[in-house]
Amino acid sequence: MFKRIDKHEEKTLSFTFEGEPVKALEGDTVAGALLLKGESVFRQSAVSGENRAPYCLMGICFECLVEINGVPNRQACMVKVEDGMNVNRQKRAVEVKAP
Amino acid sequence: MIVSDAVVVGAGVVGASIAYGLLREGLSVELLDEGDAALRASRGNFGLVWVSGKGATLPDYALWTLASADAWAGHAAGLEEETGLSVGYHKPGGVDLCFSDEELEQKRALLQTLNDAVGAERYQARMLTRQEVLDIIPTVGPDVVGAGFCPHDGHCGSLSLLRALHAAYAKRKGTAYRAGEVMLNIRKVGTGYAVLTRDNVYKTRKIVLAAGLGNKTLGPLVGIDSPVFPLKGQVLATERTALRVDWLTPYVRQTDEGYFLLGDSMEHDGFNTFSNVAVIRGIARRSLRSFPFLKDLRLVRTWAALRVMTADGYPVYDESERFPGVFSIGCHSGVTLSAVHATRLARMIADGALAPEVSAFSARRFDVQEN
């Protein structure tokens, strides 16, 4: 659905999404790289469990939340890809360890 | 020319509650919203329906607040029945945590004053030991030494409330509130009034000014002094959690959607609605001291909004002497008072006069004679 419109000479990076390898260019956001790959399910709603994907891509809507390197609820559109990142879907709400 | 029995200027929680109530009284009502230039206190609200500690120096306010808390469950149920929208109202009672013997003593004295003024069997405020706090909230931090408790305190989704009020208004009236209506003036026309906005003229018999901080400039147009000023509050929202809690404090609460909201800062900062790190840090610090488990949660949003405050913190309700039938209604607790605004206050306005139970809220209390 998405393709790059500009020429690029940036360094190629790789990260994983749900354990599968994904290629990206330096400077890509996690959301951008996943959309380029054709991914349409970033998370499941904390309320209904419905599948969700990025909407605004500018940090406002919080629809693109994913888990990055074990940290939940990060905005995929606000985080740049780093080599070796482990990204997973945000599956519903976080558990809280309440003593 | 748009003709109706009443015009309500301001479509925030206060104006929308009154407009909804006036419709239920059988009046035809036009509800006017200024637009996104407005300061919109209703959209930055924390969502408390709070009784505890209010009205210590004005028992009429304690009673008015209590009356609204009593009516709130019915208010929420009525809105849901009319619109199908839940406003997320819960009434677990409010736990106001104390961190020192001095705080405990201050809280005890405050609640004693209110128990005495209202009647202890009615007000039902009491102090909790640390162990009693732990029975309600097992997750409080080690610094908590006790708390005040009042069973009348509750909370709701304040944005859901605003949405439901707008929906209930629209359903009864058949059309939505009027957006982008900037009120310029009020004129006497025959036995009624004309409300002049930038784009329209509204002919009516009754007018309610419910424009929040805007009442300060609109009130004098009809001879009403409305001494309100902005008091900034900032709110922090965490990510949604699977953990669900059923307790309530005045500065940490959980929404139906799973967010924890942290708040209760107060700043005199003019009309500035920006967040700032120093205050955010202070809110976070107190919240973490109260509930250490919050440290594992990420903040996803912060915002600031301006309370509609008065010098003594109590509402200002007045009817114009020169323009009978024109009322000015201002307060900072628009969510808490939504239930009485939609019922008792709307009925008073429909009947044509503010009743004795709210006469103490006239801004004339600020008139001090000097020699």
Overview of this protein structure:
- The complex is a heterodimer of chains A (99) and B (371).
- Chain A has 99 residues and is mainly beta.
- Chain A contains 1 helix and 7 strands.
- In chain A, strands 1, 2, 3, 4, 5, 6 and 7 form a 7-stranded mixed β-sheet that branches.
- The longest helix of chain A has 8 residues.
- Chain A is globular and about 45 Å long.
- In chain A, 32% of the residues are buried.
- Chain B has 371 residues and is an alpha+beta fold.
- Chain B is 31% helix and 23% strand.
- Chain B has 9 helices and 18 strands.
- In chain B, the strands form 5 sheets. In chain B, strands 3-2-12-18-17 form a 5-stranded mixed β-sheet, covered by helices on one side. A 4-stranded mixed β-sheet of chain B has the order 1-11-10-9, with no helix packed on it.
- In chain B, helix 1 packs parallel to helix 6, helix 2 packs across helix 6 and helix 2 packs across helix 9.
- The radius of gyration of chain B is 21 Å and the shape is globular.
- In chain B, 46% of the residues are buried.
- The model of chain B has no long low-confidence stretch (mean pLDDT 96).
- At the A-B interface, strand 6 of A face loops of B.
Summary keywords:
A: 99 residues, mainly beta, 7-stranded mixed beta sheet, globular, B: alpha+beta, 4-stranded mixed beta sheet
Short description:
Chain A has 99 residues and is mainly β.
Please write the string of helix (H) and strand (E) elements of chain A: EEHEEEEE
Strand content of chain A: 25-35%
Helical residue percent band of chain A: under 10%
The strand line-up of the biggest sheet of chain B is: 3-2-12-18-17
Q: Number of helical segments of chain A?
A: 1
Task: State the end-to-end distance of chain B.
Answer: 49 Å
Instruction: Tell me the structural class of chain A.
Output: mainly beta
Q: What's the Cα radius of gyration of chain A?
A: 14 Å
**Global outline of chain B:** globular
Compute the gyration radius of chain B: what is it? Answer: 21 Å
Assembly state (oligomeric):
heterodimer
Number of strands of chain B: 18
